[in-house]
Amino acid sequence: MTPVFDAVGSALLDGITDPAQIAPLTDSQLSCLADELRQRIIDVVSCNGGHLAPSLGVVELTLALLAVFNLHDDKLIWDVGHQSYAYKLLTGRARQFHTLRMLGGISGFPRMSESPHDHFGVGHSSTSISAALGMAVARDLAGRKNHVLAVIGDGSLTAGEAFEGLNLAGHMGRRLIVVLNDNEMSISPNVGALSLFLSRTLSRRWVRQARKDVLKFLRSVPRIGQKLALYAMRGEWSFKSFFTPGMLFEAFRFTYIGPVDGHDITALKQNLKMAAAVEDGPVLLHVRTVKGKGYPPAEKNPTLYHGVGPFAPETNLSISVKGNVPSYTEVFGKTLVQLAEKDERVIAITAAMPEGTGTNLFKERFPDRFVDVGICEQNAVTLAAGLASQGYRPVVTIYSTFLQRAYDQVVHDVCLQNLPVTFCLDRAGLVGEDGATHHGAFDIAYLRHIPHINLLAPRDENMLRHCLLTALSGNVPCALRYPRGAGFGVPLDGEPRLLAPGVGEILRQGERIAIIAVGNRVYPAIEAAAVLAEQESGINPAVFDPVWIKPLPMDQLADIARRYEYLLFVEEGVLAGGFSSAVLEFFSDYNLLRAHHIKRLGLPDKFMEHGSQLELRELAELRSANIVKAVSELAVKDNSNPKLKIR
Ligand SMILES: Cc1ncc(C[n+]2csc(CCOP(=O)(O)OP(=O)(O)O)c2C)c(N)n1
Asked: Which pLDDT band holds residue 403 (cuts at 50, 70, 90)?
């Protein structure tokens, strides 16, 4: 093994190419390494953006884990994986770390394909305990002895899947270590009864009082009272575990250890060793950390620094330069408040993302009509169904990728009963640097086949407002999909207006060629059409915005099929089962297909990786220049056929 360093004060981090180099380090060396890790994380995240506060909070925990466990043999799963930057730096990726989240660079989340030390791919929360249990069962079947660990945050612990994992792990009694990283935060402050149970308020104030009462009672027992009290005090540890979160985890048949200071490397190592020594069943080690630890602005405002764009660390202020154009999220958040002022039935629901979905405004204005369910997307959807069944107009505000979790609830609880729940799917399409786990690639495909649901794709932020009003005014389930980031900077009409169901808009008349573009691809299509029309080629495409993905604007589409021979579809979603596939099904069912020449642009049948949204759109051939090229190719292809020759 290469020695890590020879003198105190020299750079440790760059010498670490293998996690096995951590174990021999002294605690004071580890604490120097912690400083270096923090600095490197801040340096890189301030350039590339990323999950800053979560990663800073687990630096000591990561070092202690690597010091105690053998990552060549033991298995470690990070829940969500947004806190894994120190782990990446210590497991052979320090040299590539500057490429974090960049196209072709290392991912912002653990990926099995990226490193042999990423034992399980993550990005969506609360999977770690189930996956770890699976690995523990596999280990036992193979007669191996390695440890399996899951590190899960208190926010991620609110999800049903985490409890399903705990429940089964307790029942199966396998050897497994769950490390609970308790920082009292999800992205925003954690919610739910569980968070109160874990909180310091309960375990300090309440325990102190309970302890006093019990001792008073024991002392009052005639003759032996004093002895009983002494005995109880000696049994402090079990006493504490009875009245602290230990109660909960022990009910799940876990051995509970903690709480431990998550920034004290010595204590962490000791307690991890204790956990590793438990041979007869699962252990939960409760670690308390400070989110954003070591970078004061992030400690002060962990929500803002949970996930950031590039910023200047020395000024601590300029987190990503904001343009004048509002984001879809902002426009949505304001419009929802505006509409809720007039309709008391409107209730906003988020699954732990008030800031990300723009519902923080709503929360301030209508605290009684706002529900943050925690990271519980299924709960969000069925709760909405319950509200809708009682005459309310719940709006589930959620990222496209996270609604995947609640597919059955959308089908079974909402659509089957035709309940008027509105789903506002932010981050639909390519999200950029968060990559494969976070792209909203599948929503059209996983929603459009469900009976009763309506599905709208606004082309800009103004249209988003009309879509929202339309969804809230209907009597059926309705989903809107809109992308991450700034809108197109179009003027916003004073009042949102109702859209006629299943009616799209012809935005440009043309000849022989029609571009049918969905949502945020409409403007690039218009731009492409204008470029083409200016060229000598004589190509002059029409542009159609269907607005509605379901119900399809059938009359208009049928007309397009009759009038245009060349059809180009563009959508920022998977082609398989997506919008163009719906239109082609319709054309086929109604015998509308003639000798059309058709090309479809959309997301391919593979997971798109991370990179900027622009780069990824370029890769997926979804930008206006790609549209120009695709139309030209359609036309050129057909120029070989004199009968259909373009002018
Ligand atoms: C299923 C799912 N829903 C929402 C998210 C978005 N998300 C990422 S991290 C996070 C908070 C996690 O809180 P916690 O587990 O306590 O970790 P911390 O960030 O506090 O370290 C949320 C809501 C997600 N990754 N997965």
From this structure: very high
Q: Identify whether 405 is a catalytic site residue.
A: yes
The mean pLDDT value of the chain amounts to 92
CA distance 643 to 633: 17
Distance CA(30)–CA(38), nearest Å, equals 12
Looking at 161, 184, 377, 572, which residue is catalytic? 377
Q: Can you tell me which atom of ligand 1 is nearest the CA of 306?
A: 19
Cα–Cα distance, 180 to 187 (Å, whole number):
16
Active-site residue flag, 291: yes
| Residue 36 · residue 11 · CB < 8 Å | yes
pLDDT at 405 over 90: yes
Q: Which residues surround ligand 1 with Cβ inside 6 Å?
A: 54, 57, 80, 82-83, 124-125, 153-156, 181, 183, 185-187, 291, 351-353, 375, 377, 402, 405
Domain 328-481 has CATH 3.30.1330.10: no
User: In this prediction, what percent of the chain has a pLDDT beyond 90?
Assistant: 82
Mean pLDDT of 469-479: 98
Distance 361 CA to ligand 1 centre (A): 21
Please write the tens of the pLDDT for every residue from 162-212.
999 999 999 999 999 999 999 988 888 888 877 777 765 445 556 666 667
The hierarchical CATH code for the domain 505-604+611-644 is 3.40.50.920
Residues of CATH 3.40.50.920 domain(s) within the chain?
A: 505-604+611-644
Residue with tokens 């200071």: 261
190 DSSP assignment: -
Taking every pair of C-alpha atoms in the chain, what is the biggest distance, in angstroms?
Answer: 111
Express each pLDDT in 320-374 by its tens digit.
556 789 999 999 999 999 999 999 999 999 999 999 999 999 999 999 999 999 9
Burial 217-226 (b: 16+ CB within 10 A, else e): ebeeeeeeee
Instruction: Please confirm, yes or no, whether 365 is among the known catalytic residues.
Output: no
Tell me how far apart the terminal alpha carbons of the chain are, to the nearest angstrom.
71
Which two three-digit tokens encode residue 594?
A: 């003639």
Full DSSP string of 83-116:
T-HHHHIIIIITTTGGGTTSTTS--SS--TTT-T
- Give the integer Cα–Cα distance in Å for 77 and 70: 14
> 454 in helix, strand or coil?
strand
User: Considering only CA atoms, which residue is closest to atom 17 of ligand 1?
Assistant: 153
Mutational pocket test of ligand 1: of 87, 187, 195, 359, the residue with most ligand atoms within 8 Å of the beta carbon: 187
Rounded to whole angstroms, what are the CA distances from 390 to 217, 245, 393, 407, 574?
A: 49, 36, 9, 22, 36
Contact between residue 45 and residue 100 where contact means Cβ atoms under 8 Å apart: yes
pLDDT for position 217:
74
Q: What share of the chain is helix, strand, coil (3-state, %, to 5)?
A: 45, 15, 40
Q: For residue 150, what is the enclosing H or E element?
A: strand 148-153
As a whole number of angstroms, the distance between CA 53 and CA 295 comes to 8
* Fold observed for domain 13-300: Rossmann fold (3.40.50)
Considering only CA atoms, which residue is closest to atom 23 of ligand 1?
A: 352
Per-residue pLDDT tens for 86-99?
999 999 999 999 99
Q: How far apart are CA 635 and CA 647, in angstroms?
A: 10
The residue whose CA has the least distance to atom 11 of ligand 1 is: 186
pLDDT attached to residue 194: 78
Measure the CA angle with vertex 403, ends 402 and 407; round to 5°. Answer: 135
Domain with CATH 3.40.50.970 in the chain: 13-300, 328-481
* Ligand 1 atom closest to residue 82's alpha carbon, by position in its atom list: 9
